[in-house]
Amino acid sequence: MSNSKYIDLISMLGTIFLLATSITASSSMAGSVECVTVLDFESENELQHLAYQCHTWFEIDNRYATSGSRSLRVELYPPAQYPGLRFKDLKRQWKGIKQVRLDIYNPDSADIFLIFRIDDRPDNPPYSDRVNYSFILRPGLNKVVLDLASLKTSGTGRHLDIEKINKFMFFVSHPQKPLTIFVDNIRLCKER
Fold this sequence. Notes:
The structure is a single chain. It is built from one helix and eleven strands. It has one helix spanning 3-29; strands at residues 33-39, 50-51, 56-61, 71-76, 84-87, 99-106, 112-119, 131-137, 140-147, 167-171, 179-191. The chain starts with a helix and ends with a strand. Residues 3-30 have low confidence and may be disordered.
């Protein structure tokens, strides 16, 4: 290879490197989000933001924390058809929110099929007019990110009216055995 071709190749590789670096830097700055932790379960007082449901037990636990030193242990029991966790008092916090992020630890060796339900209509809308988003919890730590702008209702395909969210919950459908998960570091995120 002649020296001029060698110099051209090095120059081209340098240009590609600089271009790749600038793309990485601009994409990391564009679309960045600022998150506010709404629940991290460091205090028993945070339990008041959860609604009790039959066949679901929850309490503060010292295991599998991702923020601070505590998490929320959630136990889901049959014969309930849809045991899960429903959050209260989040109605006024959704303005400008783009994502919900939460950490869920699955201590089981098998996957758990989790369903997130989000309502933006009052009075318990039908299945077709609410978001029902499925997520597979793999064994170990799962970093869940719900992009609210991309979520649509199950039947009508309507986008959520994010500022009118009045119910946020997750559950399992018809569990065959008791299941335990650990939830922590629930954040609401806005674009900067």
